[in-house]
């Protein structure tokens, strides 16, 4: 069994895999991770290996706790990957994007794949049909856009994502919702169309915390998978034990 820890910017995701099967999954607050890791390892004593991918502020107590129970791989840009990395600055490539590219490589090994992770930021990651990671893009996420409008102005309110009835907002609130929700969907669909114009038979995977909210609002056909990053981390753990 493998323990997978994805420490993002807003929360920490914990998962247990038996082979390729995800058998346990939960989210944790950053300050509770060490306690949760111990509880999971006590409940699943057959966990032999673990992997940690952190882009946030992971509790420093987690690593010592985890090493008591299993062998740990901390994912870094120096970790082995199954794809050819053509990123111009590979040492600056986020471990979350490495995991997503790995999941794309194994999900569609001989095809063109664009992975869109709708989390704190929206990341776009492209793996082509030669098994080559090309890079992509990073833009502000859904909640970040609402927060920026509130914090970078003197009077605009802080709102939560909401369905838009009409793209023409007839109040300040509906104008904000239209600008953010309609804007982000137009961005994602536009990026997908750009990639489709260059890459034949493109598979598009949408994942991340805002996946469900956004998926039904996009015009392009996508493959939605909330566990895609976790699966990629499990693949990387297996790949790096060789």
From TrEMBL:
Positions annotated as active site in the UniProt record: 96 (proton acceptor)
Compartments reported by the entry: Cytoplasm
Transmembrane segments: none
Pfam families, per database record: Pan_kinase (PF03309)
GO molecular function annotation: ATP binding; metal ion binding; pantothenate kinase activity
Cofactor note text: A monovalent cation. Ammonium or potassium.
Binding site for ATP: 6-13, 120
One Gene Ontology biological process: coenzyme A biosynthetic process
Named cofactor requirement(s): K(+); NH4(+)
EC number of this enzyme: 2.7.1.33
Catalytic activity: (R)-pantothenate + ATP = (R)-4'-phosphopantothenate + ADP + H(+)
Domain of life where this protein originates: Bacteria
Binding positions (substrate): 87, 94-97, 172
Annotated keywords: ATP-binding, Coenzyme A biosynthesis, Cytoplasm, Kinase, Metal-binding, Nucleotide-binding, Potassium, Transferase
GO cellular component, one term: cytoplasm
Binding of K(+), residues: 117
Listed InterPro entries: ATPase_NBD, Type_III_PanK
HAMAP family found in the cross-reference section: Pantothen_kinase_3
Function, as annotated: Catalyzes the phosphorylation of pantothenate (Pan), the first step in CoA biosynthesis.
Assembly information from the UniProt record: Homodimer.
NCBIfam families listed in its UniProt record: baf, PRK13320.1-5
Family according to the record: Belongs to the type III pantothenate kinase family.
Protein name: Type III pantothenate kinase
Native organism: Zobellia amurskyensis
């Amino acid at each position: 069994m493998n323990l997978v820890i994805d420490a993002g910017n807003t929360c920490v995701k914990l998962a247990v895999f038996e082979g390729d099967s995800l058998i346990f999954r939960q989210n944790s607050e950053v300050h509770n991770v060490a306690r949760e890791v111990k509880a999971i390892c006590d409940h699943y004593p057959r966990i032999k290996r673990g992997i940690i991918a952190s882009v946030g502020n992971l509790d420093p107590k987690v690593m010592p706790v985890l090493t008591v129970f299993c062998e740990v791989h901390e994912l870094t840009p120096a970790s082995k990957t199954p794809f050819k990395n053509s990123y111009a600055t590979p040492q600056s490539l986020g471990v979350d994007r490495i995991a997503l590219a790995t999941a794309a490589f194994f999900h569609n090994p001989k095809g063109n794949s664009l992975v869109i992770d709708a989390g704190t930021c929206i990341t776009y990651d492209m793996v082509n049909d030669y098994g080559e990671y090309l890079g992509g893009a990073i833009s502000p996420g859904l909640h970040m856009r609402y927060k920026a409008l509130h914090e970078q102005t003197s009077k605009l309110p802080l709102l939560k994502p909401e369905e838009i009835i009409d793209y023409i907002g007839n109040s300040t609130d509906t104008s904000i919702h239209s600008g953010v929700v309609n804007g982000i969907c137009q961005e994602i669909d536009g990026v997908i169309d750009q990639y489709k114009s260059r890459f034949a038979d493109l598979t598009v995977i949408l994942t991340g915390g805002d996946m469900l909210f956004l998926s039904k609002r996009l015009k392009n056909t996508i493959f939605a998978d909330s566990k895609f990053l976790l699966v990629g981390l499990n693949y990387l753990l297996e790949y790096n034990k060789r």
